[in-house]
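User: Hi! I'm a student and our assignment asks us to look at how structure tokens line up with a sequence. Could you show me two examples?

Assistant: Happy to help. In each example below, the sequence comes first and the structure tokens follow. Example one:
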Amino acid sequence: MKPRLKPQDGLRILPSAMTVAAICFGLSAVKLCVDAINRDQAFQESRYTVAMAFLAVAAILDALDGRAARMLNATSKMGEEIDSLADAVNFGVAPAFIVYLAIFNGTGLAQVGWVVALLYAVCIVLRLARFNARLHGDKPAYEQQFFTGMPAPAGAIGAIGPLAAKLQFPGHWWASPTAQWVVAGWMIGVSLLVVSAIPMRKIHTFAVPRQMAVPLLALLALFIAAAIQYGYLVILLIIAAYVIHIPFAVRSRAWLAEHPEVWDDKPKQQRQARRAIRRAQHPNRRVVRRSAGRLGLRRPGGQ
């Protein structure tokens, strides 16, 4: 008789099952865009919307499968390889095809569109290969707070940004060569950010004070409601917020590199140390600002 699987043994395949499901959603998103070729505008918009939703589901599954593997003590080398391949499909191949089919296919710049789609997909694969190569290397503790270059899920959101803008702000402009060149330039920019050495902050490193837990949950509910009603705008806002955060991430990493005494501290303690050092370097700044504000003083020239 074959030994029966224990319940926990059956759960050990759950992370890999989530990864396989993510691949299915990513490829199904491509299939939806293929179905929309040469169809009426309403049908195309519905298929593009569902395709972006499928990519969002794939991203959620990608975020959960690793955590599930660690919780179930089911991490394995095979699971890591499947996860990396899934990222290449879901955040590299699928967005490249979706943008090409939705923006460039059948236009005068179709060949240019295919080139930038290939560039984006290759850059995602290179970024994943670099991440895997550095995964087990020796590096300072503070490096764990940052990605090197734009992570693959963020790159996918950035890549489909032009499609979200097209669906949110439709018009004849999107069929013009100017629009297609703008999208091509955007895709090249996203591709370069993906393989760049620019630090990007990891979301889980942001500390949430206890007193802010309830307001943040309320904001999360508002965000989900907005994503349901105004999904395209939410995608564009996410892209804008991520781009805005980049200079702050660069500045934060540069400060940490110059202060090895805080490398072993938690992110919250590092931020407290940074504020303390800033106050020590400029002890009179707050006093001067308060005094000037009370007196109504202004800088020369009205500045």
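Example two works the same way, sequence first and then tokens:
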Amino acid sequence: MVTDVGHAQRVIIGTRDAESTGGVLTEVGLVTWRSLVKLTRTPVLLFFSLFMPLIWLVMFSQTFGTVFSSATSGGFPGGPAATPLPYDYVAVLLPGIAVMTAIQSASQSGFGMVADLESGFMDKFFVAPIRRSSVLAGKLLADGLRMAAQAGIILGIAAILTLFGWRIPFATGVMGALLIMLLAAAFGVAFSGLSNTVALRTKNTESTMMVSFSLTFPLLFLSTAMLPKALLPAWVQSFSTVNPVSYMADAARALILTGFDWTAIGNAFLAILAFGIVLNGLAIMAFRAQGK
């Protein structure tokens, strides 16, 4: 049998005679653990997936903070009369940075898939006594845990900034932060279906990178990730209503600025679910076609 995954095979074979659910959980856990261990061996990926969003958080908040304050000095369009906002633009931008981090991490999921295909490691999974669904589920679970941790780091840095006078209310406290981490992880796992599909179909890192990155900025800037909907041009407002990024950003922004908006949170999870079913459905079909 394949020596590189000998330990994993012995554990899986030992559990095959147990209940089916236990076997699946064991397989998913093994693949998840392997993916997380592999990630620790390339910490540079974690650094750069956080570096650019943090740069954006600082630069955009400073560059557009004055513009945002001027635009809202008379109150939001269609909203109540002018009152001083109790928060800075960085609080408005923070959900967009969380989305950006999730999208970039989702792209890395495809890069990792290509690396496993090129190294032949994925072929070893295909001949090992393990369900293919467990392989993909384990990789997605590892991605979700990584994305939740990255969103937590972003929020933690934002919390530190409040000590230096940056006005970020965090209206829902720790529970809201945990919910934002869950939203970011769910959105990232959903979006990773795209990069995994391209990776499995092309087996090429450049193609995966091109497709993933070419969609990142349109999804971000044609949504409410950077600004509230009321401040966007009319045609962008129209597009944002069908952009899943907007639903995630609106829910996260409410958790930071005002409180638990369960309608926005429910809409966000529904949008992420629909987005994930489509993209990860394509990834599953591409994955099943491998090794045949």
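Here is something you could point out in your write-up. Residues 88 and 167 are 5 Å apart (CA to CA).
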